[in-house]
Amino acid sequence: MSIPMKLAAVSIAVGCLVLALKYVAYYVTGSVALYSDALESVINVATAIAAFVAVQVSATPPDANHPYGHHKAEYLSAIVEGVLILVAAISILYASYRGILHPRPLDAPFTGLLFNAGATGLNAVWYFVLRKYGRKHRSPALTADAQHLWTDVITSIGVLAGVALVWATDIPVLDPLIAAVIALNILWTGWKLMRSSVGGLMDEVVPDNTLAKITEIISANADGALEAHDLRTRHAGRAIFLDFHLVVPGEMTVSESHRVCDRIEAALRKEIPDITISIHVEPEEKAKHPGGVPVVR
């Protein structure tokens, strides 16, 4: 089992434990704000399961029906997570509306705050783990799961402060008002998550820093060629796809030009894992910058 799959599996267990702690916090207090926090944890468990399935599918080798692999399955997972976040926010808004109409005092607020604080601390620790390895393995599913957890952490901190304020002031209507603010924040996060995932499905180019690294590697390893141009990139989950034209001298043999391509490809794969490269070799009359050193355009 790969590291992303192991992390996705552990996320399910962490999500279930956090959900249990937050539900206890809501159960002993009757707080609408703590209910909103517990409801978001239900979504955490669902999204963790979706991430696990997506990471598993994306790791499936290419086949006859999917010759470029299954990497985009992770983007579908991230979109599902975004939809679930939006559903949770709407549910919280409805509960907030009812709470504003019929405010009620909190029961056992101190006990509820303790359980919620423990769940928040656990979520914060796991967020940093997922963010680190999600970036390292370029996994949209793990990154989306981490982003959702961070939203949950911020939400929980706000809930803790809000419930403490309700307890201190003895103004019950503050509780559903705080829950409504939390729901609006969740809506915004869900929208951003879905937007970034759609970008991946639409074959957006790689980030600028990755593109700069690619062009630097090509230029440093294109000895014998005249130039490289018409470079195109796209990314799908952990995978990066690159194609470009490599202009070589007219007298260069096929074997020699092939060795140049092999050298470039080896250098790229060494520095950028999970990259698929296609190079189209052209004669020097196709050069767009005659007489120059190998350049990327």
UniProtKB/TrEMBL annotation:
It comes from the Bacteria. The keyword Zinc-finger does not apply. Residues 207-284 form the Cation efflux protein cytoplasmic domain. The chain crosses the membrane at residues 32-55, 75-97, 109-129, 149-167, 173-191. Residues 10-202 form the Cation efflux protein transmembrane domain. GO terms for cellular component: plasma membrane. The keyword Transmembrane helix applies. Keywords: Cell membrane, Membrane, Transmembrane, Transmembrane helix, Transport. Pfam families: Cation_efflux (PF01545), ZT_dimer (PF16916). GO terms for biological process: intracellular zinc ion homeostasis. GO terms for molecular function: cadmium ion transmembrane transporter activity; ferrous iron transmembrane transporter activity; zinc efflux antiporter activity. It is a multi-pass membrane protein. It is found in: Cell membrane. Gene3D superfamilies: Cation efflux protein transmembrane domain (1.20.1510.10), Cation efflux protein, cytoplasmic domain (3.30.70.1350). Belongs to the cation diffusion facilitator (CDF) transporter (TC 2.A.4) family. This is Protein p34. It comes from Afipia carboxidovorans (strain ATCC 49405 / DSM 1227 / KCTC 32145 / OM5) (Oligotropha carboxidovorans).
